[in-house]
Write a structure and sequence with these properties.
The structure holds two protein chains of two kinds.
Chain A lengths: L3 E9 L5 E10 L4 E5 L6 H9 L6 E6 L2 E2 L10 E4 L11 H11 L4 H14 L15 H13 L5 E5 L7 H18 L3 E5 L2 H7 L2 E6 L2 E6 L1 H6 L4 H6 L6 E10 L2 E6 L2 E5 L3 H4 L10 E6 L4 E3 L9 E6 L2 E4 L4 E8 L7 E8 L10 E6 L5 E3 L10
Parallel strand pairs in A: 3-8, 3-9, 6-7, 7-8
Antiparallel strand pairs in A: 1-2, 1-4, 4-5, 9-10, 11-12, 11-14, 12-13, 14-21, 15-20, 16-20, 17-18, 18-19
Helix pairs in contact in A: 2-3, 2-4
Chain B lengths: L2 H37 L2 E2 L10 E2 L3 H8 L1 H34 L4 H13 L2 H12 L5 H8 L13 H29 L3 H9 L4 H29 L3 H6 L11 H11 L3 H31 L5
Antiparallel strand pairs in B: 1-2
Chain lengths: 377, 302
């Protein structure tokens, strides 16, 4: 297995569309790195440049220490799992799995042995004689995976490999794929638009937006310390709530004003978060995760930030209720900003009901209103 | 109501809906075919009305099989079909692959390639007649520049060069048809299969051999069946270019058929020839289906 190092990658399409700008990323040997972003952010372009299916405008790509920029896909020793699976429709499962070895003119015994071991690993034994069209979606997905692992390549490239599966199967395959990766000690560059997949699968997660890398970090850090407003809003479901806010110092302490409400902050708040000092008395963007709201009665901190809200819609999703409400936010350009709070179902909440919710001030994120970057912690 | 009754009622409706199509097929395909078959067992010579007219059994076929000219024409027809269809397939495949990869002026290239196919056979043949005219044609002029003897420049005077002209005309005119069919076939092969094969380490040739060609087989099969059936009935070029000559050197079955019916007015004998031509085309089609079609049939459709 080898590492993938991408430096200074730029890709501009002939029609002038800039797909990637100054993109740097290193996937360590044996690492499962997830590249995540909304559709059209350029994540597939990264993968296709690494694969050799597209030519970067500039930049260097090395695989296992070897510069592969001028090598065709055949000579890069990478395996790719396609979103559509791209199984060869006229070949049986066995022939699909054997194809890459056959192209490398391996012996019949070696091919049979390698295919048999992959088929056993993926539970495809009884399907070897079938054509792809006779298989279910999950089985096709396994064949696509098997085709990639049958010859131990330097690294694996995966382009949304689970997105065509139904929800239950996707969760199952997520686990199986991770087990397989650990077992093979494989280097994987995995592209997805699904932030849940990114958080659950990645050793590290790289967030891409509009052709620019936003942040590369382990999932926990991406969630807890998003580098900017885009990452904060993209990672997490339901998405983080954003509202214009202002930190003010009154006679009897420190306050946070937003949405027509005033939350009192602990007096040592600015000592704990010195990065906020320059923003006093100025507008900034506050970010509140839905799952960080609790009913006011359960707030334990000395100075809980209590919000008085009026419930608009309640969505039941099982473990929690998504309580929708809105707060006035004249600075954002619209009258009110929609909010979601994920509350325990034991909290009574019905539409048009008034409710008090609390949020731990330490869990509030702040972003610069101009640049969108996170204020220093 | 019993389910069986319901089913048979549905089946009856099915047949009823099928009836108009079957009727049309029967009228335009089966009736002429049946009539030709019936006619081939008759003696019907309009020029010689005093001879016996009517049922003669297999006499027409016996006469046919005994005639050297028939066997010669059959050999000519098979040779022409095999050579011209092979050339058309090879050139058509090359052109289709090239056009499929063309990224600029796609509309123009496709229209330009199709042009010869849109020209009527007789017009195309006359154009080639001008091209090979010993006095002012472009091709004899070229041969003269190459220093070939003057006798060689009269292309239609020698059996071999006459066939070369006929085949060239046919290839020129009909390659576009195969190109078009194969281009359509190429366009339905998903691009990611090529990419997957590339990632799997297949060279360009291996991709062509293991991905493109097998997935193009259905289109090749259809194109071959169409072209072969047409080539087996070749008449227009022969009639316009050589008139079957020199001597009988370029006579084909369809040309004999024309002579039997329109020169000799022997309708029964002509019908027997028609039946032989039909069987020949059928034999080619079955041969293709058995050699290539089996691979397609194997795959059950969902």
């Amino acid at each position: 297995m080898g590492e993938i190092v991408i430096t200074g990658l730029n890709k501009t399409y002939p029609n002038g569309v800039v797909a990637l700008q100054d993109f740097d990323l290193a996937v360590a040997d044996g690492e499962f790195l997830v590249l995540v972003g909304p559709s059209g952010c350029g994540k597939s372009t990264v993968l296709r440049c690494v694969a050799g299916l597209e030519r970067p405008t500039s930049g260097t790509i090395t695989v296992g220490g070897r510069v592969v920029n001028d090598l065709p896909p055949q000579e890069r020793d990478l395996a790719m799992v396609f979103q559509t699976y791209a199984l060869y429709p006229h070949m049986t499962v066995f022939e699909n799995l054997a194809f890459s070895l056959k192209m490398r003119r391996r012996s019949q015994e070696e091919i049979r042995g390698a295919v048999a071991s992959v088929a056993e690993k993926l539970g495809l034994g009884q399907h070897l004689h079938k054509k792809p069209r006779e298989l279910s979606g999950g089985e096709r997905q396994r064949v696509a995976l098997g085709r990639a692992i049958v010859r131990a390549p330097q690294a694996f490239l995966m382009d949304e490999p689970l997105s065509n599966l139904d929800a239950a199967l996707r969760v199952q395959m997520r686990i199986e794929l991770l087990k397989l990766q650990r077992e093979l000690q494989a280097t994987v560059l995995y592209v997805t638009h699904d932030q849940t997949e990114a958080l659950t699968m990645g050793d590290r997660v790289a967030v891409l937006h509009s052709g620019r890398l936003q942040q590369v970090a382990p999932p926990r850090e991406i969630y807890d310390r998003p580098a900017n407003r885009f990452v904060a809003g993209f990672i997490g479901s339901p998405a983080m709530n954003f509202i214009t806010a202002r930190i003010t110092r009154g006679e009897n302490g420190l306050f946070l004003d937003f949405g027509g409400q005033t939350l009192s902050l602990p007096t040592d708040y600015l000592q704990k978060r010195p990065g906020l000092k320059p923003y006093q008395q100025k507008n900034l963007i506050a970010g509140l995760r839905p799952e960080h709201f609790i009913p006011a009665s359960e707030a334990k901190t000395a100075a809980p930030g209590i919000l008085k809200i009026r419930v608009e819609v309640v969505e039941t999703v099982g473990p929690v209720n998504y309580v929708h409400f809105s707060l006035p936010d004249p600075q954002s350009g619209r009258d009110r900003t929609p909010f979601v709070a994920a509350l325990d179902p034991s909290v009574p909440a019905t539409p048009a009901q008034d409710l008090e919710v609390a949020i731990d001030p330490d869990r509030i994120h702040f972003f610069d209103p101009e640049t969108g970057t996170t204020t220093p912690y | 109501m019993k389910p069986g009754v319901l089913l048979s009622r549905e089946a009856r409706l099915g047949y009823l809906l099928l009836a108009p199509a079957l009727l049309v097929i029967a009228l335009v395909a089966l009736y002429p075919l049946g009539y030709t078959l019936w006619l081939s067992f008759q003696q019907k010579i309009i020029k010689l009305p005093w001879l016996h007219q009517g049922w003669v059994g297999l006499a027409n076929y016996r006469e046919l099989l005994a005639a050297d000219r028939f066997w010669q024409a059959l050999a000519h027809t098979v040779m022409f079909t095999v050579v011209s269809v092979s050339l058309e397939l090879a050139l058509g495949l090359l052109a289709a692959l090239a056009i499929h990869r063309t990224r600029i002026l796609t509309g123009l290239t496709r229209a330009a390639v199709l042009l010869p196919w849109a020209i009527p056979t007789v017009v195309a043949a006359v154009m080639w007649l001008f091209l090979i005219n010993p006095a002012f044609g472009l091709i004899p002029m070229g041969l003269r520049l190459l220093g070939l003897p003057e006798a060689w420049q009269v292309l239609l005077a020698h059996p071999a060069s006459a066939w070369a002209v006929i085949i060239a005309t046919d290839v020129w005119k009909n390659t576009p048809f195969i190109t078009l069919m194969l281009l359509a076939g190429l366009q339905v092969i998903p691009e990611d299969l090529y990419e997957a094969a590339g990632m799997d380490g297949a060279s360009r040739w291996q991709v062509f051999r293991h991905i493109t060609l097998p997935l193009l087989t259905p289109a090749i099969l259809v194109a071959l069946i169409f072209r072969t059936a047409q080539a087996f009935m070749v008449f227009g070029h022969i009639y316009t270019l050589t008139g079957g000559g020199p001597g009988t050197a370029t006579e084909t079955l369809a040309f004999l058929n024309y002579q039997a019916i329109l020169n000799d007015m022997r309708f029964g004998y002509g019908a027997a020839l028609s039946v032989v031509i039909f069987l020949g085309s059928l034999a080619f089609a079955l041969f293709y289906l058995y050699t290539m079609g089996l691979q397609i049939k194997e795959e059950p459709r969902p």
